[in-house]
Specification:
This protein is α/β, with parallel strands linked by helices. It contains 14 helices and eleven strands. It has three domains: 145 residues, 3-Layer(aba) Sandwich (Rossmann fold); 67 residues, Helicase, Ruva Protein, domain 3 (Orthogonal Bundle); 69 residues, Orthogonal Bundle (Arc Repressor Mutant, subunit A). A five-stranded parallel beta sheet has the order 2-5-8-1-9. Strands 3-4 form a two-stranded antiparallel sheet. A two-stranded antiparallel sheet has the order 6-7. Bound molecules: adenosine-5'-triphosphate and magnesium ion.
Length: 301
């Protein structure tokens, strides 16, 4: 669908990758060297949205102290990505329909018609047909937008993507943090594949980023995944290896893990770790002794 100028409607739950798909379509189209202009049409009041889309002439309304180009012009030759279109006001919907029909519009307060060549990609995370049935979205605009439709399934409906996406994010965040490559333990991977992912790919990405940042070796186990994903509470995680632990033991264990993690990130340089903790080196050394932390030699895994 990329080569044509046909309008595309992308529907999918939050975090499924709608904006990413829109960018990919643009990048694979003959318009790729022209602007890709995203606008969140659901996030602003109608007047502001219209002045953003159509631009305005000086004096069109009280605060219009200078004339301004609209995003339809800014995106000329390229792609305008209209995100969250379902919540757009009815009046604005009518105006947009007109632009979609003949690619002409006027600045607010202006008299001259402006012709543009813009491809529209729209996205929504609600069922737009239902919005039409319930009278909140214009049917004619729906058909104008829905020339080509892309339905992005939720992540739980394409679990075979989870290992691929997880590895992609592991590589990305290890690289971003200057760490050696990471991979998931078999157990951690199984946990990710079984989880429901209400936040879809975005939630997966955030979980992997967190686990990479917390990891101290090449293999990431399920203990580094967020508790609501593994179904374990923070306490369960802490008491995993010692069910008889007292509160004192648990707190010591937390302190030990935090210190070890910091030391690992500082290449086992105690002076640097103490500085980052904002405590004297002598205090850190006392803790290392009391908590039986074994100082490993320098060098990262
Ligand atoms: N197939 C994919 N490969 C790599 N990263 C992806 C993929 N799909 C989504 N992502 C990443 O997941 C995150 C969410 O994607 P995106 O913002 O495109 O979702 P969205 O559907 O627009 O969400 P929302 O409805 O909340 O705006 C982004 O960081 C994106 O880079
Ligand atoms: Mg989005």
């Amino acid at each position: 669908m990329a080569p044509s100028r046909s309008t595309i409607l992308i529907q999918g739950e939050s975090g499924t990758g709608k904006e990413m798909i829109a960018k990919a379509i643009h990048a694979n189209s003959p318009r790729k060297d022209k602007p890709f202009v995203p606008i969140n049409t659901g996030a602003m009041p109608s007047e502001l949205l219209e002045s953003n889309l159509f631009g305005h002439v000086k004096g069109a309304f009280t605060s219009a102290i200078a004339s301004k180009k609209g995003l339809f012009e800014v995106a000329n030759g390229g792609t305008l990505f209209m995100d969250e279109i379902a919540t757009m006001g009815m009046d604005t919907q009518a105006k947009i329909l007109r632009v979609l029909q003949d690619r002409r519009f006027m600045h607010l307060g202006g008299v001259q018609e402006i012709q543009v060549d813009v491809r529209i990609i729209a996205a929504t995370n609600v069922d737009l047909r239902k919005e039409v049935r319930e009278g909140r979205f214009r049917e004619d605009l729906f058909y104008r937008l829905n020339v080509i439709s892309v339905d992005l399934p939720p992540l739980r409906a394409r679990r075979e993507d989870i290992p691929l996406l997880a590895q992609h994010f592991l590589d990305f965040y290890a690289n971003e943090n200057g760490l050696a490559p990471r991979k998931l333990s078999a157990d951690a991977l199984r946990t990710l594949v079984d989880y429901e992912w209400p936040g879809n790919v975005r939630e997966l990405e955030n979980s992997i980023e967190r686990s990479v940042v917390l990891s101290s070796g090449p293999v990431i186990g399920s203990d580094l995944l967020p508790g609501h994903i593994t179904g374990r509470s923070f306490q369960d995680t802490l008491m995993e290896h010692n069910p008889d632990a007292t509160l004192f033991n648990i707190l010591e264990d937390i302190e030990r893990r935090i210190i070890v993690e910091k030391l690992e990130r500082c290449n086992w340089n105690q002076t640097e770790a103490a500085e980052q903790f904002h405590i004297p080196l002598s205090t850190l050394n006392q803790k290392i002794k009391r908590l039986n932390i074994e100082i490993r030699k320098k060098g990262r895994e």
